[in-house]
Amino acid sequence: MTARTFTHPSVLAGITAGASWADAEMDPTRIDWTARRAAAAIPFPLVDGRPVNPYAPTGIRYGRNELGHWGEALAADAIVTAADIGGQRWLLLIERGDGHGWAVPGGHVDPGENPTHAAFRELAEETGLVADPTDPWVKTLPARYVPDPRASDEAWMVTVPVRIDLGHGWDALPEVTGRDDARQAAWLPARSYQHLIEHLRHYHDGDVFPAHRDLLAAVLDH
């Protein structure tokens, strides 16, 4: 079986345009991996000077698929919940603008940025909700690999999830609106992960972003 090589045209366009999310280097063997591997949230190997996804195979052995960053790209995600006066738990999600479904607000951690602060920044940018990172109910969880459908064996995503519980007894949940690269933002009922996906499919004809399915199932059901 021939190893598949693929890099999406959007990545090549991003490189040409000088996008910050895309490595300009086309050949990963010319990258100095010492610093990147030292800073990685999840260790990964090199084979012949090329980064290898620690959770490979993805189906694409060489190239970046839809991700612009060679090797690990670090993200932070805000998992925001609140409960109304009836005790119903609600989860804040956004509909992604790229058509990959509904996801928790989040995005890339900027160089030198604290992942917890990045999660709160992305939350405000994508939903308009400004929360307090010093709140005692905020909990930053360990970094975890996410099975992003845009990944390859040479470019993948790792996220730092940040749990933000806004508490109970809400008469009206905080107003949110889709911003930046989010088509919309909405509070969705989430007694369990199954309850969430049933609501999404029935009322929004949508589904959870594949990279966040295991993460949300772990949070909502445990």
UniProtKB/TrEMBL annotation:
Transport keyword on record: no
Ranges of residues in domain Nudix hydrolase: 69-214
Record has Lipid biosynthesis as a keyword: no
Assigned keywords, A-Z: Hydrolase
InterPro entries: Nudix_hydrolase, NUDIX_hydrolase-like_dom_sf, NUDIX_hydrolase_CS, NUDIX_hydrolase_dom
Superkingdom per UniProt: Bacteria
Family note: Belongs to the Nudix hydrolase family.
Protein name: NUDIX domain-containing protein
